[in-house]
Amino acid sequence: MKFNMFCNKIHLPARSSIALAIVIASTGIHAFAQATIYADYPQKRGKIEPLQWSDLPSWMTLSMELRGRTEGQTSFNYTQNGDRIYELTRIYGAVEVRPTNFLTGYLQFIDTHALGLPTHVVAANMRDAFDLRQGYADLHGRPGGVPVDLFAGRQELKFGSERIIGISDWTNNSRTWDGFDARIGDKNRVDLFSTSVVAVHPTSLDKHGAGLTFHGAYGSISTWIPKVHLSPYVLVHTVRGVTSNQGVKGNEVETTFGAEVEGTLPANFDYEANASLQRGSYSNNSIHAGQNFDKLSYTIEKLPWEPRIGGEFDYATGDGHTNANRISTYDQSYPSNHNAFGLVDLFGYQNIRQERINLDLGPTKSLSVLVQGGFLNLAQKNDALYSSSASVTLKPPTGGFATDDIGQEFDASAKYVFHDYIVANIGVGHLFPGRVLLDNKHGAAETIGYFSLTYRFRVDKQAPTKQK
């Protein structure tokens, strides 16, 4: 059983045709990822170093990941002159056991800290003092010749580009779920899961809420259509004790159905698109929401460093409050939001519209460079501005915001792999605030810079084959 068996294949992003036209017409070049490298996130670059310990039982594997990231912000928590420099540390340690050829057990601990920040300003995704991150049993076999894995326990869920369901690995406390996932198939497969997301408690044991509340079927079809990877999905999210627009208390039952598709086109173009609708009930109100993002990019193979130019369009509905019986704010579910709306990571995939242009460069096999420019707007001026964690950053004033202009962002980042196993990340992002922020006491321009190092290794009785 491979150490990374639970990890899904990471798909390369593509760009929208509308945004690509903007890119080609523009004199300023901004960024995205190389044809074989997603430069910043979510793909982990570098290899897991294989180590040998002859006294270790052959049915056991030990592994560890060490990561440290220094971050600096000029306007921490939207505070003018709120300069902060701090160190985010993260340690994963895991043991995998294989008592039989059809059963694998996996335990992983997490220990994270935010050094240099006062405790009262440490975000919920920064600190978790020694806790269980994953712990599951994997029952696997090939009934009827079809590969089947049943994961039961605390585990990761991540699919496709992770814009709908992902672990948010960039954060110090990356996301896991308690529950069950049945994975059926190989190149063409479906995941059937019933889970509840784990809530992080920095000074006590992490746990999920009462019951299993997040269910779904997520497909991955890679052989039906040449050069196309199709991922249809249906998700059901339930929440108890919500309050409707009329003040009526009840339950929420929300269904999200959609699909993600990515692939290559002639003449060095590649693309990705994802669209979904949400329907359901929110106490006595109905849910009508949706999202769509489109990416299209072009690789210039004949130029040095093979520049890849791309454009992107993102849209998630907001609530115009024109119908008191309807909820229209898109629920972003559980995405990996890092760099979805700039490196500052301030905004979530709710009530938002973005156009982004990108340039990705690969100077060497070990080095990738990414430059980006984004234009951010509200989808509805009568709805709130939401954070990357889906909380409300700004409520609209009476009559709505005067404008939909959130701001513009410029980002530059690079990733370098030293000697196969040590991965360095460096980047800087700057948000130029728009009128929505300037007019509502959040107008401090924000610059974030970071530098991180990551190292991973695994230990077996015999040195395993080197793996990515």
From TrEMBL:
Pfam entry (one): Alginate_exp
Gene3D superfamilies: 2.40.160.100
Keywords of the record: Signal
Ranges annotated as spanning the membrane: none
Signal peptide, first to last residue: 1-35
Residue ranges of domain Alginate export in the record: 60-447
Keyword Signal: yes
Keyword Signal listed: yes
Descriptive protein name: Alginate export domain-containing protein
Organism classification: Bacteria, Pseudomonadati, Acidobacteriota, Terriglobia, Terriglobales
